[in-house]
Amino acid sequence: MDSVYHLIGFLFFFLFFLVFYTYLGYGIVAWLLVKLLRKKSPAHQALSDESLPHVTMVVPAYNERAYLAEKLQNCLHQDYPPEKLHLLFVIEGSTDGSDEYLQQRQAELPDLTMLSGTQRLGKVSAMNRAMLQVTTPITIFTDANTQLNREAVRRLARRFDAKAVGAVTGEKRISLQGKESAAGSGEGLYWKYESFLKKLDAQLYTIVGAAGELFAVRTDLYEPVEPDTLLDDFIISLRIAGRGYRVDYAPDAYAVERPSHSVGEETKRKIRIATGGFQAMQRLAYLLNIAKYGWLSFQYVSHRVLRWAVTPFCLPMLFLLNLILVTQPADEAGFWWLILAGQVLFYGAAYVGYVLENRQTRWKLTFVPFYFVFMNGCVLAGFVRFSRGNISGVWEKSRRAD
After folding, report:
1. How far apart are CA 202 and CA 198, in angstroms?
2. By 3-state DSSP, what share of the chain in percent is helix, strand and coil, each rounded to 5?
3. Would the pTM of this model clear 0.85, i.e. be above it?
4. Residue 261 and residue 168 in contact, taking contact as beta carbons nearer than 8 Å
5. In Å, how far are 3, 200, 205, 258 from 192, measured between CA atoms?
6. pLDDT in the model for residue 182
7. What percentage of the chain reaches a pLDDT higher than 70?
8. Closest by alpha carbon to 314, among 25, 28, 22?
9. How far is 20 from 25, CA to CA, in rounded Å?
10. In DSSP terms, which residues pair with 256 in a beta bridge?
11. What is residue 205's predicted lDDT score, i.e. its pLDDT?
12. Which residue of 83, 186, 219, 378 has the fewest CB atoms within a 10 Å radius of its CB?
């Protein structure tokens, strides 16, 4: 019987190690590798206006009329030679007056192109359709409900001066006002940590996944994506990396958006992302071949695969194994009772964070556990949704905070 408990104890620590490595250990390992290998972020010289490439900003926008004026103004005010900046809005299926508004603006903006239609096909189909119209060497994708810093386009474009770079992603930032919901607070904290990991990833070799709010690609490297794809930014950028190009990170080019309106809205968004994660892992299974892809495989597994396909399933198993381990004789079970108490306290704090969310209370002691459990719960729900099939790439909008 003792050997059985020892085996269960070993399994417990192994699963705990996987969880630790996924969320903290990989960051430590990547930081150490960057230091040991003396990897440095390459210096990016400022390019003169004459040497900057022509770029096309592609903005897929389904029923985003409320944001179009501000988004269009934001694009036009970019610190980039206006004759080299081309705008392409894809608004197919919109029924909120987006078509009429952009038609009015086209009369005064010769570099504004609009693709519209009555059929609602989804963001990926809109992007595939848009890319048939793009003739510039660089394409920048950005969401309609985000605002870019004025230097964003210039800072993305200059990264392509390195021929090994096939795509560049900007940074996603969450704009919090006053006491936002716990989901919003957690979302902001999550993206700050993600930004830190992406900086390390870029220094080590390549980042593994672009931010759909703002990313750029070499136009000739774009491959049409399957229409039912949920994480277009992730698959596009990883397929480019799989062809031997680096996906660079430009944190000084950023997109700002508001957090989700509520935990309910954030739940829908996270489940969709998680569903897309399982779909992407199925389509990118070839990247697991570390003998062929080396650093890319290591980073892909460490930063993405473990977070989606392993860790969320480890958490309930850790709790169940802990319950078994406390049934040992009293002189051996004391340690495991302490561990169980720690788990109960952690999940209790997560529940308190969930309750306080409705009161828009930011208390880090509870909303950090809450958001951690919340994210992993959404991944499990995403796995169930993926397993059932019938995945659609048609637009699913999540309501953002006002």
Report:
1. 6
2. 55, 15, 30
3. yes
4. no
5. 44, 13, 20, 15
6. 46
7. 88
8. 22
9. 6
10. 147, 173
11. 94
12. 83
Give the C-alpha distances (Å, rounded to integers) separating 41 from 172, 204, 248, 353: 19, 9, 10, 38
Cβ–Cβ < 8 Å for 397, 66: no
Q: Which of 388, 326, 318, 382 is nearest to 347 (CA)?
A: 318
Using alpha carbons, select from 62, 58, 140, 141 the residue that is nearest to residue 394.
Answer: 62
**What is the helix (H) or strand (E) element at residue 87, kind and residue range?**
strand 85-90
Would you say 350 and 183 are in contact if contact means Cβ atoms under 8 Å apart? no
* CB of 399 closer than 8 Å to CB of 288: no
Reported residue count of the chain is 402
Q: What is the pLDDT of residue 202?
A: 93
- Which helix (H) or strand (E) is 113 found in, with range? strand 112-115
Among 74-83, 95-104, 119-128, name the most confident range.
74-83
Tell me the two tokens of residue 392: 């659609």
Residues 6+ away with beta carbon under 8 Å from 181: 259, 260, 262, 263, 357, 360, 401
Scored b (16 or more CB within 10 A) or e, 197-234 reads bbbbbbbbbbbbbbbbbbbbbbbeebeebeeebbbbbb
Q: What are phi and psi of 89, to 5 degrees?
A: -100, 130
Q: Is the pLDDT of residue 263 over 90?
A: no
